[in-house]
Amino acid sequence: MEKEEKPCASLNYFLGVSALCAFECVLFVLQLQLGVDESYSLLVAKNDDHSIIGEATIEANTVYGALRGLETFSQLCAFDYGTKTVQVYNAPWYIQDKPRFVYRGLMLDTSRHYLPIDVIKHVIESMSYAKLNVLHWHIIDEQSFPLEVPTYPKLWKGAYTKWERYTVEDAYDIVNFAKMRGINVMAEIDIPGHAESWGTGYPDLWPSPSCREPLDVSKEFTFDMVSGILTDMRKIFPFELFHLGGDEVNTDCWNSTPHVQQWLQDLNMTPKEAYQYFVLRAQEIAISKNWAPVNWEETFNTFATNLNPRTVVHNWLGPGVCPKAVAKGFRCIYSNQGVWYLDHLDVPWDRFYNAEPLEGINSSSEQELVLGGEVCMWSEVADTSNVLQTIWPRAAAAAERLWSKREATSGKNITLTALPRLHYYRCLLTRRGVEADPVTNKYARQPPSGPGSCYEQ
Amino acid sequence: MGKVVKSFCFLVFFGVLVEGLNIWPMPNSVNYGHQIMYLSNDFALKTDGSKYNDASGILKDAFSRLLDVIEVDHVIDSNFSHFDPIAILHGIHVIVWSQSDELQYGVDESYKLSIPSHGTQVYAHIEAQTVYGVLHGLQTFSQLCRFNFTNRAIEVHQVPWYIIDQPRFFYRGLLIDTSRHYLPLPIIKNIIDSMTYAKLNVLHWHIVDTQSFPLEIPSFPKLWNGAYSISERYTMADAAEIVSYAQRRGISVLAEIDVPGHALSWGTGYPSLWPSKDCQQPLDVSKEFTFKVIDGILSDFSKTFKYRFVHLGGDEVNTSCWTETPRIRKWLRQHGLDTSGAYQYFVLRAQKIALSHGYEIINWEETFNDFGSKLSRKTVVHNWLGGGVAEKVVAAGLRCIVSNQDKWYLDHLDAPWEGFYMNEPLTNITNHQQQKLILGGEVCMWGEHIDASDIEQTIWPRAAAAAERLWSAYDNLAKDPSQVFGRLAHFRCLLNQRGVAAAPLVGPGRVAPEEPGSCYKQ
C-alpha cells in the first residue's frame, strides 16, 4: 500500500504539531478513568513544494485524545529510502476519530510465570500502538503470589523465588508508566478459588494443609486479609474498576474439611451459598473503597439475582453471556474464550477480528451496558521468552474490533479490508522492536515457514 | 542487620556448591569474601588517574547503561540512614591505561575488578588496558549486584571481590542473517545489547543472500532493488549506525557478501549478473562487470565496516548454471578452466579485490576443502560443515573460525545447550603454534525460519553456553555441563529481567515453558 504513492508533504526536523485542548483540559490535571474522552481530530495540511515543512494539527478534548491522535499520526509517517526523509503520504489528511468501546483491554497473568517489569512495560508500550487502554493485571493465582502487600508482608512468600517479585513501588511505577500512555491498570485478586499461593505465607487461609483451595470461607481472618489487600491496593490502583475473580470455584475442600463443614452447617449454608457469600462479602469491601467490582461470569451464572448491581460481569466461558447479563441490567466485558484467549494458539487473527461483543444484543440501552472487551494472555505456557509474539499481532485484530465502528469492521471481506493493513501493521510493530508473529500463521507463535518478506508472512 | 546473609538467598540450587557465584561467563580468577555492601543513591563513576579521556563518551554511556541494568527496572527506594556507612559502595573508580578507543581484532579486553571490604568512602575499582576491558568489567560488576526486596537497595554480596579476567579467544561471534528475513534496526540493536551481557564481541552480519539484497550500495544503486520491499532495507547510514552502536559496546561488525553462490538477489537490479534469465546463480564468472560490482561493494564497505576482516562467503557453489549457459561454457573453454577451476578463479579474484581495499579475508570452508593451497595466506577459513576441519586448517598454516553446524548452528532447534557448551574449538589441536591460529568461534543464527518475532528466543540462552566456551579459561570450563546448569539458568533469568526474551533452558531450542513455574527451574 505504501509502495506507489507520491508524497505530498515532507517532514523534516521542524515538524509543527499543535494540540489544542479544550479549556477544561488546560485548567485541570485530568484523571484517567473509564470513559475519558479519547476523541481527536487530526489534520495534515498539504504543501505543493516537497521541501517545505508541512504542518499537522491535532485537536482533542483531553490529553488522552491527543495521545491517540499522535499514534495515528505516527502511522501516517513512512521513511522514504530514496530521499532518506520521513514522509507523510496522501496529504492532506482529515481524520476524526473516537473509540467505539470505552474498555479495550489486554489481560496479563504474572502468576503462572513472573514477568519482569521491563517486559510488562514493553507490553504496555505496545498496547499504546493499538490504542488498547486497559491493562488487566491478573497478579496472583494458584501458583505464585509475586506482589508485596505491606499489611500482610508474608503474602509474597508465595512468590516463586525472592527475585520473582514486585514491590509496591514497582506497582506504582507500572501504573504511572501506563497512565503516561493513557492506559488504565485494573488489578485483580482472584478469590476464593485460584488462591492457593496465599497460604504459603499464611497457612491458616487454607481449609487444611492437604486441601488448599478455595480460601477458607469460615474464617474472619480470610476477610481481614482481603480487606487488608484491598486497602493496600487502593493506594496503588486508581482505576474505578477492581477485579475480584470468582471463577472456577471448586468447593470440595470446604465440604471435606471438618471445621468448614461445621461452619456451613451452623449457618445452614450449602457450599454454593457459601461461594455466593464469599463473593458478595468481598464485593462489599471493594465497594466500600469506592471501586466497582468486576467478577468472572460464573458469579453471574450462579447467583445473578444476588450479585451487587454495580458488578461488571466478565464473560469468558463462551458466547451468549453478555446478552443475558445486560438484559438483567449488569455491565459486561467480553472475553469469550473461543475467540479472544491469546493462549489458545489455534485461534487465528480473523477469528479475533470477527468476534463481536454486541452479538445477540439489539436494544441500544442494553448495548450501552457492554463496556467493551479484553483479550487474555494466560501464561501457563507463556513467559518472557514468548509472550510478546503470542500477544501480537492477534491482539491488534481485537483492538480494531473494539475501537473502530461496527459498520467498518463487520460484514466485509476482511481479506481485502483488513488483512493488508494488518500485514503492514505487523511489520510496523517489528520495526518498533515489538516481536509480532507472522500474520498468516494458522497456528500462533510459529516461526515463519521459510524466507520471505515481512509483508507476505 | 545488613551483614546477615539471608539464608533464602543461597539455598543450594541444582547442586551449585559455591554460594551465589552467578557470573556468566566465568572469569579467569575469582576471589571473594562474605560481607555485604549497598550501592549508594548517588553511585558515581570516578576516573582519576585514568589516561583515557573518553571524548567519545563510550565510558560514560556504558556507566549509565550499567545503572539502568542493575536496577532491573525496580524502584530503588532505600532509606540509607539505616545502613552502616562503612558498608556503602559509593561508585566505581575506573582506570584505563590506553588513550585510544580504536576497536580492532585482538584489542586488549582484559580487566581487573576489585571491590574492597567495608571502609570509609569505598569505591569499586576497575583497571584495564583499554576502555573495552572496562566495559567487560562493568558487565561483570553488574552481575554481582542484586536488588533486595526488603530494603529496596542494590546490594553486592560476598565482598571483598578480586577478579582478574580476560578472554580465551579474540573472536567470539554471533551470525545474523538479514537476507532470509529482514530484521528491523531496533531488533538488531537489541541483539547487540544482549551480546554484551555474555561478552560476545563480533556481530557477523550476513547481509545479503539468494532471497533478498537489503543494503544500499551507493556505487551500484540498483542492487537494493533486490530487497523484499522498498521498506525492508538498510541505508548506508543505517549500517553505519549499527557499526557505531556496536562499537560503543565493544562489538565489531564483520560484514559478509557471499560470492559467487548465494547471490541470486543481486540480479534483481542488475540482471546481467545472472548467467541467464532462467539460471540465476552463481554470479556470472565470465563477466568483468561481475567483478566491478564486487569491487564497488567492497569499496563502499570499506567506508563503513572498519573491522580488519571482510567475509566473502564462497559456500555451497553449484556451478551447473555456468556449464549450462553456452556463453559461459565457451568462456570456460577459452580460459582452460573446468568448473572447480572457475570456482577457484572467482574466489581468488574476489579475495584480491578485498585485499586491495585493505581487508583480510574470511571464506567458508569449502574454499579450503577444494583448493586450500591456493588461498591467499591471509585467508581465515570459516569452518561450518562439521568437526575435524579446524585441525586441518591450522595444520596447513591458515587461521580458522569454528562454527561446526552439528553443535553451533542456532537454527538447529534440536541442538541442545549442553552441546553448545561442550563444543571445544581446539579439539585435536595440541601444537601450541597451531592453537594460536584458531581465532575463536561463532554461533550462527540463520534466518530461513526465524524473524523479528522469535529471533531472540532462538539465540538465547544457547548462545550463552557457547559464549562461556569462548571466553572462559579452559580449566574453568565444566567437564560435565550439568555442573553449570544452575549458573546458566540464573543467567537466563538475568537476561529475562533485562528484557531479553531468552527461552527456557530445559528442552530443545526455543520451546515454550512446559508449565507454570519459576524462571530458575525452567
Report a brief summary of the structure.
The complex is a heterodimer of chains A (457) and B (522). With 457 residues, chain A is an alpha/beta fold.
Blueprint of the fold:
The complex is a heterodimer of chains A (457) and B (522).
Chain A: E1 7-11, E2 16-21, H1 23-27, E3 40-44, E4 55-60, H2 63-76, E5 77-80, E6 85-89, E7 93-97, E8 103-109, H3 117-129, E9 134-138, H4 168-179, E10 184-188, H5 220-236, E11 241-243, H6 252-256, H7 258-267, H8 271-288, E12 292-296, H9 297-303, E13 312-315, H10 321-327, E14 331-334, H11 337-340, H12 349-354, H13 364-367, E15 370-377, H14 387-391, H15 394-403, H16 406-409, H17 414-417, H18 419-431
Helix pairs in contact in A: 3-4, 5-8
Chain B: E1 29-31, E2 35-46, H1 58-71, E3 88-96, E4 111-115, E5 122-128, H2 131-144, E6 145-147, E7 154-159, E8 161-165, E9 171-177, H3 185-197, E10 202-206, H4 236-247, E11 252-256, H5 288-304, E12 309-311, H6 320-324, H7 326-334, H8 339-356, E13 360-364, H9 366-371, E14 379-383, H10 390-395, E15 399-402, H11 405-408, H12 417-422, H13 432-435, E16 438-445, H14 455-459, H15 462-471, H16 485-497
Parallel strand pairs in B: 2-3, 3-5, 9-10, 9-16, 10-11, 12-13, 13-14, 14-15, 15-16
Antiparallel strand pairs in B: 1-8, 2-7, 4-5, 4-8, 6-7
